[in-house]
Specification:
single chain, 153 residues, 4 strands, alpha+beta, two-stranded antiparallel ribbon
Length: 153
Amino acid sequence: MRIFFDFSSLKDLIKKIEIKQKKYNNVRVIMPQIATLLYKSVMDNFNKQGTDEKSWQPLSEITIRKRRKGKGKGSIKILMDTGTLRRSIFPVAKEKEALVYTNLNYAPTHQFGLNKTVKGRKITIPARPFLHLRREYKERIIELLQNYFKKDN
């Protein structure tokens, strides 16, 4: 006894699967948009002086007095004494990834914080996570991806 299967009715399904597979393998076209959204999220963290989950710890009085730009009187925006850290952040889009980065050696200190003793003096810099994806941007990225994979079924 032989059983024959007719797969001709599956041609449409196979074609749709092939189209989807090409889309999954060609996400580089939406990576620049995602990188831009990541960048905007980080800039919002600077503008709003914290993440959507938690405001950054205020500057200490000593830090405010030592500010170069304000010479003790000017802007007391957190992580923005000279603006170098903020200006060092760039969006990057690659074939299958999107990211933001900074190459400043002191960026991790501000992102993660620091507790250290130098010459008997305790130095504490609180964590102020600026490389944080805000909820609204996460939702926009998800929507962008969903729309990308929905079109041209």
